[in-house]
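Subject: sequence -> structure tokens, single chain

Hey, anyone have a minute? Need the predicted structure for the following. Not urgent.
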Amino acid sequence: MTEAACGTICAPITTGEGIVAGEEHGRRAAAVFDALGPAYEKAFAHSEAHRASLQWLLGLLAPGSRVLDVGSGTGRPTASTLTEAGHEVLGIDVSPVMVELAARQVPAAEFRCADIRDVELEDGSFDAVCVYFSLLMMSRQEQSELVRRLVRALRPGGGLVLATVPADVEDVEFVFMGQPVRATSFATEDVVALVKGAGLAVVSDQSVLFTPAHSDAAPEPHLFLCCRRDARAPAG
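Reply:
Had a minute. Here:
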């Protein structure tokens, strides 16, 4: 999930008094993205950094690789790019509307409507994992635990692409593309420390200021990390 920053996430409407339980986070995320539907895809379709990270991943993968797409949205561009290159994609998203759109738009991939925190992930079962803006409606503890689980689900040497809005904020409420949202994130150095602590080596990173193509959107900082699981060390 892509959260607005600079004019929004860094200048919140209100700050919550505590972290909402994981189940409530899931319901809220589903409601937001059910409402946004195709508008979300249109707003972020021109992200060159997103497409560049996918090209890095394609260069890493062997033919017919198995990829997990966490927060798969409408299926484009992530699942569509990967399946068109001949890879097997499993997309997980908490929004029924997004899953329906993705299944229609990218029939070559498999999509499931579920909260990734509730999905069993077998160790070493994926060649790559994509996590594009899908952590931001989770608490910091949940984000940290999930990243560690995702790294364990990677085969040694596998690739993981993570994108987020880097900001030192916790349980902040704001308006994102007309929808009320609560978000939590980490500063850039803490995101990097998180993935390294989980057993990933950061191969490349890119920070950009991106403006979604939406009348209610403001410029927001995006951080893209292209990572590999260390083949010599266990996941954190």
